[in-house]
Amino acid sequence: METSRGHTGPDIRPLKVWGVYRPQGDSFLLQDALRKASVPPGAHVLDVCTGTGLIAMAAARLGACRVHAVDTCYRAVLSARWNAWRHRLPVRVEHGDFSTCRAVGRRYDVVTANPPYVPGPDTADPEHGRARAWNAGPDGRRYLDRLCAMAPHLLTPDGMMLLVHSALCGPHTTLRLLGEAGLKASVVARHRQPFGPVLAARAAWLTEQRLIAPGQKEEELVVIRADRTPGHNSG
Q1: How far, in Å, CA of 12 to CA of 131, rounded?
Q2: 3-state secondary structure (DSSP) of residue 209
Q3: Of the given ranges (39-43, 78-82, 131-135, 213-217), which has the lowest mean pLDDT?
Q4: What is the rounded CA–CA span in Å between residue 232 and residue 235?
Q5: What angle do CA 11, 224, 197 make, to 5 degrees?
Q6: Which alpha helices (DSSP H) does 183-233 contain, by range?
Q7: Those residues with Cβ within 8 angstroms of residue 159's Cβ, 6 or more apart along the chain or in another chain
């Protein structure tokens, strides 16, 4: 089911960021979707690309028994750890990503993800500095495609994933890949917002790539929910 609605502001304001990308509209939209999805009591939750830890802390506040947060940025790990400690919330933060969790066979009732998804030229370095929080290749799907393939291996039999990204990256592709992976997926939230500094700076390139219309100054964010289907074997 697709819905069109705005989003509420954060219940938790991380106090430390230490150079980490601050929560923006996508984080707050994902937080709102998590609240509406109803975290099962006692759930084990994984938050991918946790950043400041906002979504991980929200999951803990919503009743999760155990929250595991991961990020490939050491500054993000330190920020999320400090913020969880400051708010006295049971969040374990580690350096790594979703492939790290798959490697050790961990499975979760809920997986949340706000991965890098901003399209950019191949010259945009995705591995260093603050830009690692948004650079995701020419089509914005460098990490999204991997996460879609990995999703069923991270979820328990009744698990769900909530994934946020820009409509510039092709939500239809995300839905298709999740379906091919054996999950039932749908768009559960949408929100339009003005371009931030990164997209505004890339507007000319995005127009050349036909990812946006000439003069476009807004993007649509989507949250996609994916559920394990009964009897699906992820291997």
Answers
A1: 24
A2: coil
A3: 131-135
A4: 9
A5: 65
A6: 197-201, 203-208
A7: 107, 108, 109, 110, 111, 227, 228
Is the dihedral angle over the CA atoms 117, 119, 125, 131 positive or is it negative?
negative
Rounded to an integer, what distance in angstroms lies between the CA atom of residue 181 and that of residue 56? 25
CB 64 within 8 A of CB 45: yes
Evaluate if residue 3 carries a pLDDT over 50: no
Phi and psi at 38, nearest 5°, equal 65, 95
The pTM of this model reads 0.87
Rounded to a whole number, what is the largest CA-CA distance in the chain? 48
Least confident of 13-17, 72-76, 165-169, 202-206: 13-17
**CA-CA distance, 124 to 130, in Å (whole number)?**
12
Instruction: Say what the alpha-carbon torsion angle 124, 76, 93, 58 is, to the nearest 10 degrees.
Output: -100
Domains and their CATH numbers in the chain: 25-228 (3.40.50.150)
For the chain, how are helix, strand and coil distributed in percent, rounded to 5?
35, 25, 40
pLDDT tens string 55-68? 999 999 999 999 99
Map residue 225 onto helix, strand or coil: strand
Would you state the pLDDT for residue 140? 87
Q: Which residue has the tokens 């050349």?
A: 208
**pLDDT of residue 93 exceeding 60:** yes
